[in-house]
Amino acid sequence: MSFSQRASMVPVTQKVRAYFAPVERKTETPTIFDPSREGMFELESPPAPWIDLGWIDNFVRSAESSDGELSAGAPASLLGHYRTTVGGRVEFDFREWGKLQMALAGGTQHMNVLATENDAIASPWGGTPIAATAVLEGSTSSEIVVGSGSIGDFSPGDLLAIDRDYQQETGYVGAGVASAYVNDAGDVMRDPNYLRRITFNVGRVATKTSDSLLLAQPLIGGSPAEGTSAQKVVAFLDREGGTFFQEWSAVFVHQEESGGRICFYYPRLSASAVQQNSQRGLQKEIAIAILQPLRALALHACFVALPCRDQADGETVVCYRSYFPTATAAVY
Fold this sequence. Notes:
This protein has 332 residues and is mainly β. The protein contains 4 helices and 21 strands.
């Protein structure tokens, strides 16, 4: 075997790219990543419903599965070993800021700050918002029909939260993606805008027609359901504390300079406060020097890998690692 053949077996990579997709929280059903169909997708255009969250730094993953040993006889002789626990952790820095990046790094419930009336009462979430605009029939995940009478209330560049009025339901809430968990409707029943404050169904207006708003990116939650309304968003907000934990499926891609690819697929990642990189302490934002005094702020994120059952053979797993060798690489 020539040296060139063996050299092409060495993965050479620069950065890691992160892609996330929702977990159906009521049933704990993850989004499936099928390497036979999706493994070599274009990095800039991931297959739906995967969401591109950009390049990440300081990617560290660890396996926390453990084994037990079985011995017998006198003196005891090792007969074999078995799996006692299954687990893993992931830690990295988001280099880009956005709603989902903030939610995943913050770990808990994430909010939209709605545009408010001038006389609104002050609140950490934002005060009394401007009244919502009804989303009309014919709307899709990329086009929001509001009618000719309301189209003038919106402009290209506006951020919109699109969801229903809160109707005192409990459990997981939010259009398409579980955005919060309501234990007691009495805690939030006085705010009909609650779902639009916490929804992931947010988009930016790219342009508009005589009666509809065309979004720059499709809504995560899909086409708006009947009875949905839209409100302007002026900022994204998270807070330290709370009992809701983000849980998403994730794929991390090492794009090889040699032409191959390595993918790590985690069916269920749950946000965690436990950090593997002790040198960083408990930092949540990482300052990265560019040219003094300029610094870039990265979002530090930590996750625990939750187990799921592989339907093919019933095994309990937390991560799948796939390798797509370059065309010139030897098999082994």
